[in-house]
Batch of 4 targets.
Target 1
Amino acid sequence: MIVVSEMMHPDGLSALSGHIVQYDPDLYQDRPRLKMMLARATGLIVRNRTRVDGDLLDAAPQLRAVGRLGVGLDNIDTEALQDRRISLVVPYGANAVAVAEYVMAALLTVRRRIAEQSLAVRAGIWDRKGVQHQLQARTLSVLGYGATGQAVVRRAEAFGMEVRVYDPYAPRVPDRLRVRDWDSLLKNADYLTLHAPLTSETRHCINRSTLRQLPARAILVNTARGELIDEQALVEALEHGRMGGAILDVREQEPPGPSDPLARYPNVWLTPHIAGLTVEAQQAIAVTVASRVGELAGKLGFTRGS
């Protein structure tokens, strides 16, 4: 049996048609029930809200594979999986295009003031004197050169941007892009976009010290993990006018509380963790993960559960 504890594209479920499947997109909220279902499961598919740790895995003695509908692994204890010889399926690169398109769309929307001008016209204001900016010849600094970082680089270069990349773990960063250290990435950045995983090394890599090194004109873009940014430090930088702004699709706390301090600033643009949520990306992720988990879990029957 394969348990799916969070939302999955219907094509992913279709890819599991040869298996007994227990699908409940809200199951992650009922941990006792999830544990009960896992007692007979050989496969588990999750997004980012199911906490897959030793406690949960102890309730799943037959589990052979865990599939993650996304690339972030901060909700999954990978060591616990390794200790139990449970395979982990991650669809690296499946939503890279979606996230890269979001980054470029967000930069264009902000720098060309598209949303702001649309609201003005709807209100009867026809003002053509507003200041806009092109992306061409501006410097885009990219932290992380995985599939998403590479997709962003390709699109930014097509716009004629000056692109710089820092990733000490990526051996194939082209010489024209690579900078030697973190400080070099921050210097002279017009835009800084984050595409690194959340680790002990990267947590709060954007902090008071980092923000002081960025030019005051810089706009920060985060579509990776909210915990990469010390949000209190970002608030302080915005309050003192040391930032051009921020585009944040992910947050330290999701969703943020009702008194979210970052929502006060007109040069901060916020979206609800949707950068990778295109129909096409979710379809590709679901099919990729479901097919591999089904293969690893083994066929146990031909009737889908409910």
Target 2
Amino acid sequence: MAGRSIDGEEPKYRFPAGFHKSQELFQLHRARQAGTDRVVIVEGFFDAAKLWKAGNRNVVALMGSSLSETQAGLLEKHFRSAVLMLDGDAAGQKATAVIAGRLGQTMEVTTIRLRDGGQPDQLASREINEILSGHVREVRGYGR
């Protein structure tokens, strides 16, 4: 079982001994069963849970803002296209550029820019679905 700090205390995420997040994608087993060759990639557990709650079954979380070679291989094996919906902070936007460059070599990649500091788990379900349906590509005023 993994956990997340809710009061800003470090480390932000805690994983069980021996768990290597770079070898896994959170919810990959569910995303593979979604019936689509497109995957939505987010950073964290709560982001993935929020998109799932909004009805998006094709979502995985990196459990951070980096993509390992193992994770890239899993995505390329199971999907033909990806939507990157990482956090709107500096780390998330830098990771978006790096990951888009990496995955873009083997699959179609769409990037979504959230407002500065925004996170997918801060969006309402309606906003998430509007963004993912292609009506919005750069999100500035969304979120709480």
Target 3
Amino acid sequence: METFEFTLIASGPDPEAEDFEQRFFEAGCGDATVSFQKGHILVDFAREAPTLQEAVLSAVENVQSTGAVVRRLEPDPLVSLSDMAARSKMSRAAMTHYFKGLRGRDFPAPKARITTESPLWDWADVSLWLYANGRLSQEIVTFAAVLSSANHLISRGETDLRSQLGRRVEDVMSGLQNGPVAPARSKRQKVP
């Protein structure tokens, strides 16, 4: 078993009700901290499960059994260059070079705020690109794929999240079978 950390954003139960937190505890969320922030119910999980997919599915089912409506999962799938740098443990300058095409080719296009100075990218797309270019582990790509797929299905109102999520994640993971390519050497590096 492994412990997976993520947050479910939900709405529904009255946070002022006396049994608000107890309701989540009794529904199987004893491994989560429940709070109400910025108009949303946040359920921060540290869930033990054999896979991230199972952790997410069981958490969604537990939260839904309280009468809450799950809106999405976080960490947020939309990321800035700074967010990408932090998640990949690389510098912001490196992310900027990838984005501008100075390193690597075919970096994913931004998904939101495209006309602004600080566009946002889909972390699942970026993590897959970084993995394919030998810069990120498969574990991080899997985490991004599961959360992105779950968010997509939740936003569509899918009722059979369990089977749908499995199929979507399998599709993403089948694309990782060949493994990452070796990272390209910078022209400034000396070859031994």
Target 4
Amino acid sequence: MRNAALILFGFTILVFEATTTALVPIHPFTPNLLLPVVIYLGVSQDVELVRGAALSFVLGYLLDSFGGSPMGLHTFVLVAVFLLARGAGFSLFLRGPLFQIGLTFAVGLLAGGTILALRAIFEPRPPFPSGSAWDAFKSLLAPAFITALLAPLVFLAVRSVDSLTARRPSEGTQAP
């Protein structure tokens, strides 16, 4: 039930993003709101490795489907972000919004750079969207900045969704 709720939440985020970008042209500042969800899964003590990787895979696949990206691009990057967050063990990350904003910004830059590098390697187009390194840097900086600013709200929402669907021990049984 928890997995389905998180996938439904990710789907809702993608629908919201697609609707917003269709109504308001915010291209250079388009956030990736699934990135904080995956970071939350990576730093949460309640999420097992296999569950988090599988959820990150499904959310990345949904993002690839919604965004029209080559299949597997965001899937790979979101699973890598989950594993990076899990391996680094940022336990302080959940402590406050400043840590959430800072880490999400850093991971957003890293994820955007990875996507740009993978596109440069596997696609025949030039690696920089507008032809210069400065334009490519701006295209990495703006989404990472907006995603980082929205990260505390996304974390709060994911925490709420995850806690609403968490299994609670029955009154007649003892918790291990």
